[in-house]
C-alpha cells in the first residue's frame, strides 16, 4: 500500500488511555478509524504492579462501561474509594464520604497498564479500525480532507485528525495552537506499597511544606503513592532505595497504614499547568493532555481527557447527515461543550496548589481555616463531590 493513500473518516494520533478510548468509541459509532499508537507495554519481568494508577470518576467509569471495556477489567484489580480525607498543614481536616454524598463511591483506583491492556484487547476486535505502530511526520489540510504522512512511508487521508498525543503534542504544533505553560517546579513521584493495616477504601492526602502526599487505595493490602514534591526533593526521592523511600513516606503518614513495603520502582513526571488557545482547527481536534494539563492533586487529569473524548464522540455521532466530520461548525460545537468543564477544573486545581504553596503563618492560618469551614458545610461538600464525579 506504500504510495497509495488509505482513507479514513477519523485518524487518532497518540495512544495511552485517552487516545485508545477515542479510537474505540469512534469505531463503535460506525466510523472507519486509523490509530497511530503503540500497544501497551508489558510490566517489567517479575513486576506485579504498574507504578502509575488513575482515579476513575463516575463519568469515566460510565464511559468505559459504554465502550464495554470496564466490564473486561479484572475486578480484583479495581479498588473502590468510599471516603477521602484531606489534611492541611496545621491540623485542619476535610472528610468526604460517598455515604454522606449519597453516591455509590467517590472513585475507583486502577493501574494504568490494566486499563490500557483492556482497551488494546477491545481494539483488536474492531473491523473498522486500522491500528498502525507508526509515527506521523507530516500534516496537510485541504478543503476535502487531511493528509498525514508516516515515518514508514505510508500516507493516510482522513476527514478529521484527533490529537491525543500528550502534553508535547505533535498534532497541536501542526495546527499552530498557542500554548501557555507554567511549570510548578514540582515532580510527581509515584510508587506502590504493601500495607499491613487496611486503608479502608479511603484516599488520603496530606498538604505538607508546600508539597502534597496522596495515598490511594488499591485492591487488597496495597496503596499507591503520588507525592507532588519540589523538583530537587523529588529527585532525591527518586534516587532513594526502596527502604529509604519507605522511611521518608512513613515520616509523613505515620503508622496510619501500619508497616509499609515498597513493591514497585518509583517513577517521576514533571508537573505543570498548560493551556491552549483553541481545541480545534480545520479538520483537527485535540483531546486529553494535548488540550490541557492540570496539577494531579485532585486526580482529575485523565477524567478530564475522557470527558473530552465522550463529548467529541457524542458531537460527531449527533451530526447532521449533510455535515462532514471535519466541518468547522461541528468542531466548534465540541470546543464550546468542553470550555466550562476545563476552565473550572483548571481554576480549582491551580488555585489549591497556589494556596498551599504560599509561605508564612498567615497563609497557613487562612487555608486551614478554609479547610475547616468547608468540612463543616455538608452542602458544599456534596457540591464538590458532584463536580469531581463528572
UniProtKB/TrEMBL annotation:
Example of a GO MF term: oxidoreductase activity, acting on paired donors, with incorporation or reduction of molecular oxygen
Keywords: FAD, Flavoprotein, Monooxygenase, Oxidoreductase
The keyword Heme appears for this protein: no
Residues of the FAD-binding domain: 9-347
Cofactor: FAD
Gene3D superfamilies, alphabetized: FAD/NAD(P)-binding domain (3.50.50.60)
Domain of life: Bacteria
Family annotation (Pfam families): FAD_binding_3
An individual GO BP term: ubiquinone biosynthetic process
Pathway recorded for this protein: Cofactor biosynthesis; ubiquinone biosynthesis
SUPFAM superfamilies according to UniProt: FAD/NAD(P)-binding domain
InterPro entries for the chain: FAD-bd, FAD/NAD-bd_sf, Ubi_Hdrlase_CS, UbiH/COQ6, UbiH/COQ6_monooxygenase
PROSITE patterns linked: UBIH (PS01304)
Family indicated by similarity: Belongs to the UbiH/COQ6 family.
Protein name, per record: UbiH/UbiF family hydroxylase
Organism encoding this protein: Pararobbsia silviterrae
Amino acid at each position: 500500500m506504500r504510495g497509495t493513500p488509505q482513507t479514513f473518516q477519523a485518524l487518532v494520533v497518540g495512544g495511552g488511555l485517552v487516545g485508545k478510548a477515542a479510537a474505540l468509541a469512534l469505531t463503535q459509532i460506525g466510523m472507519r478509524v486509523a490509530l497511530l499508537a503503540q500497544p501497551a507495554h508489558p510490566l517489567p519481568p517479575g513486576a506485579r504492579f504498574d507504578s502509575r494508577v488513575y482515579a476513575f470518576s463516575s463519568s469515566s467509569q460510565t464511559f468505559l462501561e459504554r465502550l464495554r471495556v470496564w466490564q473486561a477489567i479484572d475486578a480484583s484489580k479495581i479498588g473502590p474509594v468510599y471516603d477521602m480525607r484531606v489534611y492541611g498543614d496545621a491540623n485542619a481536616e476535610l472528610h468526604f464520604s460517598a455515604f454522606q454524598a449519597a453516591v455509590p463511591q467517590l472513585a475507583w483506583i486502577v493501574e494504568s497498564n490494566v486499563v490500557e491492556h483492556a482497551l488494546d484487547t477491545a481494539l483488536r476486535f474492531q473491523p473498522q479500525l486500522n491500528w498502525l505502530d507508526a509515527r506521523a511526520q507530516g500534516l496537510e489540510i485541504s478543503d476535502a480532507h487531511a493528509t498525514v504522512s508516516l515515518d514508514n512511508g505510508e500516507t493516510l487521508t482522513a476527514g478529521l485528525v484527533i490529537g491525543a498525543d500528550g502534553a508535547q503534542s505533535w498534532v497541536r504544533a501542526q495546527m499552530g495552537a498557542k500554548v501557555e505553560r507554567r511549570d510548578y517546579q514540582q515532580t510527581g513521584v509515584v510508587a506502590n506499597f504493601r500495607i499491613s493495616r487496611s486503608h479502608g477504601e479511603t484516599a488520603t492526602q496530606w498538604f505538607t511544606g508546600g508539597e502534597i502526599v496522596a495515598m490511594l487505595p488499591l485492591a487488597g493490602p496495597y496503596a499507591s503513592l503520588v507525592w507532588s514534591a519540589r523538583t530537587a526533593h523529588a529527585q532525591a526521592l527518586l534516587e532513594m532505595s526502596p527502604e529509604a523511600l519507605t522511611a521518608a513516606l512513613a515520616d509523613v503518614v505515620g503508622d496510619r497504614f501500619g508497616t509499609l513495603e515498597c513493591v514497585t520502582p518509583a517513577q517521576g513526571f514533571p508537573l505543570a499547568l498548560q493551556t491552549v488557545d483553541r481545541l480545534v482547527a480545520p479538520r483537527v481536534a485535540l483531546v486529553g493532555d494535548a488540550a490541557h494539563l492540570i496539577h494531579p492533586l485532585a486526580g482529575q487529569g485523565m477524567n478530564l481527557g475522557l470527558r473530552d473524548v465522550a463529548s467529541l464522540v457524542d458531537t460527531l455521532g449527533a451530526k447532521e447527515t449533510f455535515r462532514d466530520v471535519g466541518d468547522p461548525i461541528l468542531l466548534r460545537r465540541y470546543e464550546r461543550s468542553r470550555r466550562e468543564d476545563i476552565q473550572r477544573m483548571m481554576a480549582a486545581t491551580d488555585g489549591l496548589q497556589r494556596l498551599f504553596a504560599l509561605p508564612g503563618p498567615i497563609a497557613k492560618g487562612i487555608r486551614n481555616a478554609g479547610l475547616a469551614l468547608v468540612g463543616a458545610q455538608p452542602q458544599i461538600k456534596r457540591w464538590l463531590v458532584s463536580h469531581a464525579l463528572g
